[in-house]
Write a structure and sequence with these properties.
This protein has 343 residues and is of the alpha/beta class. It has two domains: 227 residues, TIM Barrel (Alpha-Beta Barrel); 79 residues, no CATH class. The protein is built from twelve helices and 14 strands. It has an eight-stranded parallel sheet. Strand 2, helix 3 and strand 3 form a beta-alpha-beta unit. Helix 2 packs parallel to helix 3, helix 3 packs parallel to helix 4 and helix 8 packs across helix 12.
């Protein structure tokens, strides 16, 4: 892949039907129709974060998105962390609504990959290890998203983003996207210089006007630095044992002391600390505070990547995307990042 100086267009843009090689991460609860449409209409590629959501909500969010944008989009599901019966309904709903792009994460489930591929859909698979990258490619993924440990939210591996990116690029001919800790144009330019065909951003878009995250969560991200985040498996209720997340430090992580890992969900008390309407939210669950959440928000997991220090205000998603692109173009045009990707 060769880029003209200052140009950001890569083959990934042609594959996904977007103008800029920036993917909105499929953040559960946060990446809903309003945010996805804002990113799409600004030229990025959007993902609806529908992990373990009811098929009825998936259908309503797809309809809402299509009222706001006519651009291509993906739906993010997590087969390995979803009840098989629910997963079957989720995929069926998406296919019935003619979803053409899926985004999967966590352990590779070949049967789920085969189902969407057989239906003719494009599949992006986010991976956190070289082994998972190989498994996803073997199963039929079209694009690999290399997620490093710098990412906010659920983190599948323990390798820094650009180390993992380099390793994945060396072992695959598929399009590869970098994800984790990338919140500005410098990170985008660097990823392209490594040979990535784009980046996926979560935290950068969580702190935007259209994000469905609670304002408290957004403000905490704005005031945070990368060193204010920690990796822990302490927010694990609703997910498999040992599932690690990157969150902002809070009163719950302080109670862990140095024992950030090794939490057994079977031994965690089910203490209700917040609610979304009638739905209770438990202390140490994976549920982050949304617009609809009331209760003790400070104790909830505040997902945030190490790139938080580059985010100092809440702005419209289009503005954030445009700033990312302008910064990257400037760096590439000045030669501060020389594209060295594969041809």
């Amino acid at each position: 892949m060769t880029l003209e100086p200052g140009s950001l267009r890569t083959p990934l843009c042609d594959l996904l039907g977007c103008e800029y090689p920036i993917i909105l991460a499929g953040m559960g609860g946060v990446a809903r129709a309003e945010l996805a449409a804002a990113v799409a209409n600004a030229g990025g590629f959007p993902t609806l974060g529908m992990v373990r959501e009811a098929p009825s909500l998936i259908a309503s969010e797809i309809r809402a998105y299509r009222r706001l944008s006519n651009r291509p989009f993906a739906v993010n599901l997590i087969p390995a962390a979803t009840d098989p019966g629910l997963l079957d309904q989720q995929i069926e709903t998406c296919l019935a609504m003619e979803v053409e792009v899926f985004s999967f994460f966590w352990d590779v489930v070949p049967e789920a990959v085969a189902r969407v591929k057989t239906a003719g859909a494009l599949l992006l698979h986010q991976v956190g290890t070289l082994r998972a990258a190989r498994e996803a490619e073997a199963a039929g993924a079209d694009v690999l998203i290399a997620q490093g440990q710098d990412a906010g939210g659920h983190v599948h591996g323990r390798t820094p983003t650009f180390d993992l990116l380099r390793a994945v690029l060396e072992t695959t001919a598929l399009s590869v996207v970098a994800s984790g800790g990338i919140s500005n144009g410098k990170g985008l330019a660097r990823a392209l210089s490594f040979g990535a065909q784009g980046v996926q951003c979560g935290t950068a878009f969580l702190a935007t006007a259209e994000s469905f995250a609670h304002d408290y969560h957004k403000q905490r991200v704005v005031t945070a630095q990368g060193e204010d985040t920690v990796l822990t498996d302490g927010f694990v209720l609703n997910w498999p044992k040992g599932s690690v997340v990157r969150v902002l430090r809070n009163s719950v992580t302080e109670t862990f002391g140095p024992a950030l890992m090794g939490h057994d969900p079977e031994r965690i008390a089910h203490e209700v600390i917040a609610r979304d309407g009638l739905i209770p939210r438990l202390r140490q669950s994976t549920d982050s505070p949304l617009r609809t959440t009331t209760g003790d928000l400070e104790q909830m997991p505040l997902y945030c990547g190490t790139g938080a220090g580059e985010i100092d205000e809440i702005v419209p998603a289009a503005q954030r995307l445009n700033t990312l692109c302008a910064e990257a173009q400037a760096r590439l045009a000045s030669g501060r990042q020389t594209p060295v990707g594969r041809t």
